[in-house]
Amino acid sequence: MNAVDNSLHRAEAAAVRTDWTRAEIEALFELPFPELMFRAQSLHRRFFDPSKVQLSTLLSIKTGGCPEDCAYCPQSARHDTGLKATKLLDRDTVLAAARDARDHGATRFCMGAAWRAPKDRDIDDLCEIVDEVKGLGLETCMTLGMLTPPQARRLKDAGLDYYNHNLDTSPEFYPQIITTRTWQDRLDTLASVRDAGMSVCCGGIVGMGETVADRAGMVHALATLPTHPESVPINLLVQVAGTPLTGADRVHPIDFVRMIAVSRITMPRSMVRLSAGREDMTDEMQALCFLAGANSIFSGDRLLTTPNPGGDRDAALLARLGMSTDANAGSV
């Protein structure tokens, strides 16, 4: 490595911090919008090709009947949303969906099950599914609730690349959204996933009645993990009738873009995924999110149980913006 390479390496290392303070992150949220966007875009260009977006597909492999009381979730058995609980999908059905996702340009296939935590007997079937989806040439991701260290190791050994387990919001606001599992429970699962050698997918939700300080608190919790999550999904609340958050105040689009930008600045090497809520976003709002550093989206017309823009709409938007899809969003 020559002197120039050494200098660049040091500059990049300095940009990736895990010692952010809450005050520093709150100050980012308060920056004038043009300055915030400039900082986010500058860092984004240092680590990624700004014209590339990664496509992932998310499939619900076990829907509804979850005993948790997450206030945003239509799959909770505690909320009357009219959603019928199902059993774990059979392997052939999952593989057919994975092939379709791959054929439509997805490079990562994510599978979600509405459990508080999988039972050990479920892990056998899940490991088989992971192995076969990997055989299709796709990256694999699962979100199954809380994991024990042995379960995480088994999934890793089966070939699972990513595990999703969101923090959802700040530690202070968390008890107003969920009471059936603790903040520490979530951190324990993230530690099990990381210790097993899997990549972490972890983010949260905007629009649940939280304050800007809560948004800063969630970013702070993510950006001060010993290793930043490789993937950071930022969701805009999808209000579903029958859930406690129906009727919550809507988030202004600029405030949501600020959340994307601050996530990019504080976690510059992470994939920042524009996740739930895109069905209600204008093209202009999504374009601002890409400018703020979002470089991953979910493709397909469903996200677990809620609507998502179809592939044709996404393709038209990316074409209009002169952007294209790439497995790693053009990381440099």
Largest sheet, described in full? Answer: 10 strands, parallel
Number of DSSP E strands: 12
Structural class: alpha/beta
Strand-and-helix sequence, N→C? HHHEHEHEHEHEEHEHEHEEEHE
What oligomeric state best describes the polypeptide chains here? Answer: single chain
Q: DSSP helix count?
A: 11
Question: What do you see in this structure?
Answer:
The N terminus is likely disordered. The protein is α/β, with parallel strands linked by helices. The longest helix has 15 residues. Helix content is about 40%, strand content about 15%. Helix 6 crosses helix 7, helix 8 packs parallel to helix 9 and helix 9 runs parallel beside helix 10. Strand 10 and strand 11 form a beta hairpin. Strands 1, 2, 3, 4, 5, 6, 7, 8, 9 and 12 form a 10-stranded parallel β-sheet that branches. It has a two-stranded antiparallel ribbon with strand order 10-11. The protein is built from 11 helices and 12 strands.
Write the layout of secondary structure elements.
Layout: H1 3-15, H2 22-29, H3 33-47, E1 52-62, H4 91-103, E2 108-113, H5 120-134, E3 139-143, H6 149-158, E4 162-164, H7 183-196, E5 199-201, E6 204-206, H8 212-223, E7 231-236, H9 253-266, E8 271-274, H10 283-291, E9 296-299, E10 302-303, E11 306-307, H11 311-321, E12 324-325
Parallel strand pairs: 1-2, 1-9, 1-12, 2-3, 3-4, 4-5, 6-7, 7-8, 8-9
Antiparallel strand pairs: 10-11
Helix pairs in contact: 2-8, 3-9, 4-5, 5-6, 6-7, 8-9, 9-10
